[in-house]
């Protein structure tokens, strides 16, 4: 899977988990706020100048989310979902950890 698509997949899972647990939505459903956040994240990933050579967003010099309300929201989502990903999406979590260690 190309890197950008992989990142979209992971961030989508994190937003879905957050929405399901915080906004009481059913699996594969998002509330309006989370759906907009997911669309914003996917748009930013699609426009990433590094393309499939991108590393982790946290290590990036560009900071696409700088000075946007979505920045604080995605940080909240990641703080909540990150530690829980292993329990809900074990395979994806392990692959993500392995990919991060290789870089």
Would you give an account of this structure?
The protein is mostly helical. The protein has one domain (about 5-100). It is built from 4 helices and no strands. It has helices spanning about 5-20, 30-45, 70-90, 90-100. Helix 1 packs antiparallel against helix 2 (about 30-45) and helix 3 crosses helix 4 (about 90-100). The radius of gyration is 13 Å and the shape is globular. The chain starts with a helix and ends with a helix.
The gist of it:
The protein has helices spanning 3-22, 32-46, 69-88, 90-102. It is mostly helical. It has one domain (3-102).
Number of folding domains?
1
What is the percentage of strand-forming residues? under 5%
Q: Considering DSSP H and I runs of 4 or more, what fraction of the residues is helical?
A: 55-70%
Radius of gyration: 13 Å
Shape: globular
- Tell me how many strands there are: 0
Distance between the termini: 17 Å
Query: What class would the helix/strand composition place it in?
Result: mainly alpha
- Point out poorly predicted stretches: none
| Number of distinct helices | 4
Mean pLDDT: 87
SSE string, helices as H and strands as E: HHHH
Largest sheet features: none
What is the topological layout?
Blueprint: H1 3-22, H2 32-46, H3 69-88, H4 90-102
Helix pairs in contact: 1-2, 1-3, 3-4
Annotation keywords:
103 residues, globular, single chain, mainly alpha
């Amino acid at each position: 899977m190309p890197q950008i698509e992989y990142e979209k997949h992971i961030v989508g899972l994190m937003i879905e988990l957050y929405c399901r647990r915080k906004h009481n939505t059913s699996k594969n459903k998002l509330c309006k706020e989370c759906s907009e956040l997911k669309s914003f994240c996917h748009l930013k990933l699609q426009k990433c100048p590094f393309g499939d050579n991108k590393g982790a967003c946290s290590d990036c010099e560009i900071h696409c989310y700088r000075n946007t309300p979505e920045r604080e929201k995605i940080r909240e989502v990641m703080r909540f979902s990150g530690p829980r990903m292993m329990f809900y999406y074990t395979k994806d979590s392990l692959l993500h950890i392995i990919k991060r260690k290789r870089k």
